[in-house]
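Protocol step 4 of 5: obtain the predicted structure for the target chain.
Materials: sequence only (see below). No template structures provided, no constraints applied. The aim of this step is simply to have a reference model before the mutagenesis design in step 5. Sequence pasted as it appears in the construct record:
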Amino acid sequence: MGGATQGIGLACAARLAQSGMAVTIMARRAEAVESAIESLPPGEHQGIVADFGQWEAAAAAAQSHMPEGGWDVLVNNAGGPPPGPLVEADADDFLAGLSPHLLLGHALVKLVRPSMAQRGWGRIVNIVSTSIVMPIKGLGVSNTVRGAIGNWSRTLAAELGPEGITVNNVLPGFTATARLDALLAKRAAASGTDVETVAASIRAQIPTGRFAQPEETAALVGFLCSDEAGSINGTSIPVDGGRLAAQ
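Step 4 output (structure tokens):
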């Protein structure tokens, strides 16, 4: 699992570990990886330190840590590109966004596929964003990259399904994480108001009236990685309190 040292990623790692899986966490900072591993329920867990922006090196690091029988489950979870208007982005911004999400994600899929196909069982889950369905204001590059992930994963679902491998996207909405805190602060500064006012305006757009908790997204990820989810393939499932449905 990549990017699992905080927020949604850490909640997903904990959920999978609670189900009895041995979890491998890959992230950029060694101290964060170590802390995340220590926070999990006991098990044969391991950590990989790699910079997702250097996708080839990260994929090589994952390969060097892959157990003999391969991995049964792959959860792709990389931090989103920095916020900002799309018209202000340049080519390097797009490349920086695609490297940890599409390029590394695809390299990891190619790494885990042979052993999954041999067993006739595998689960690939991409933690993405509701922007796959509806772009989010102020996240220009992220909206673009997430859209690419949407078609990439649907294509993989069709190609890998006959091998017993499912590919699904989980789309967190506004979730109580450090990334949301940063987004709220940026919007507040841009509008000349305070963070709580911005937060209240967003909550008003969510039928449940609140931000989701990371553990709620993790619960869905855990199910999609289970035997019971074998016929769920090629989907993009929001965890957003009904915000998309209300648009």
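Step 4 remarks: DSSP finds eight helices and six strands in the chain. Residues 91-119 form the longest helix (29 residues).
Proceed to step 5.
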